[in-house]
Amino acid sequence: MPFTTPHLRIGVSARIYYPAGPVLDLGGVWTKTLHYLEQSVAHWLLRGGALPMMIPAVDAQSVTTREDFNLRHYADSLDALVLQGGNDLSPHSYGEQPLDPAWAGDAVRDRYEMALLSAFIDAGKPVFGICRGLQLLNVALGGTLYQDIPTQRPDASEHVNRSHYERNRHAVELVPGTRLAELYPEVTRATINSIHHQGIKDLAAGLVVEARCPDDGIIEAVRSRGPGFVAAVQWHPEFHTPGEDGLFDDTPMLIDFLRAARAVRSADT
Ligand code: MN
Fold first, then answer.
1. What is the pTM assigned to this prediction?
2. pLDDT tens figures, 90-137
3. Are 117 and 162 in contact (CB under 8 A)?
4. Which conformational region is residue 256 in: left (phi greater than 0), alpha (psi within -120 to 50 degrees), or beta?
């Protein structure tokens, strides 16, 4: 896709790396908390002609909280938001206790991304969630998650395979009549990657299901009833190889998101 000017500036929520206890004698950067942007996410947005920009995580609980720092400033300065994939949500974020310590998740990132989400929604800027981003959106709007699909839905397909990672795939079916289905008039069923052990349990009232795994009904894409553009997918579009036979083509979805961002910018100027 050609770049068009002015370029869209797309905020991307940070993935957060926490140093795991004392790090032998490695020192340096590995002892610090890191904010990072996965290259494939940046490249996916660049492919759409947009400029990805990572937004640092600072929330009310951060030691570096500054009175003059407000995520609303980012929402005002940028054209749209992408919620990156990453680690689990904390069950506390949807009113549950972790069923296993391994599923305790990242409450700091939950708070940060919920604040980001509401800042962008309040500013009327489009939001697109990837994997964890779909789960975050559902929880932020009042829904709940399976803490672990294999435990809580033993009938379900394999939605994660640690050794196959993004090469783990399953079928997806688009729900007729939705915006997603409208973008893909020729597609009812496709193949997507699947790298998640959590998933939507109770859908937030403000969301519409746009795609499911046909084998177990697990929700794979959602969209807000509005106003504005807020959508998310459980798969990772940034890991799909464009043009691969049978694989879902994420390009129309990306273009639709960026078109929404451009429409908001045009209306603002
Ligand atoms: Mn899946």
1. 0.94
2. 999 999 999 999 999 999 999 999 999 999 999 999 999 999 999 999
3. no
4. alpha
Average pLDDT value over all residues in the chain: 91
Specify the higher pLDDT residue, 257 or 7: 257
* Dihedral, CA of residue 149, residue 154, residue 156 and residue 158, to nearest 10: 70
DSSP-assigned letters across all residues of 49-96? T-EEEEEP---TTSTT--TT--HHHHHHHSSEEEE---SPPPGGGGT-
Examine the residue annotation and report whether 131 is marked as an active-site residue of this protein. Answer: yes
pLDDT score of 43 more than 90:
yes
Distance 167 CA to ligand 1 centre (A): 12
104 dihedral zone (left: phi>0; alpha: psi -120 to 50; beta): alpha
Task: Dump the DSSP string for 100-131.
Answer: SGGG---HHHHHHHHHHHHHHHHTT--EEEET
For ligand 1, the distance from its centroid to the CA atom of residue 222, given in whole angstroms, is 13
Taking the centre of ligand 1 as the mean of its atom positions, its distance from the CA of residue 259, in whole angstroms, is 27
Q: Beta strand 9-13 with 80-83: parallel, antiparallel or unpaired?
A: parallel
Q: Which helix (H) or strand (E) holds 256?
A: helix 251-268
Domains, the chain, in order of start with CATH, read 8-18+26-268 (3.40.50.880)
Summarised one tens digit per residue, pLDDT across range 10-37 is 999 999 988 876 656 666 777 778 899 9
Is residue 236 annotated as a catalytic residue, yes or no? Answer: yes
Residue 183: CB atoms within 10 A of its CB come to: 16
Rg of the chain over CA atoms, in angstroms? 18
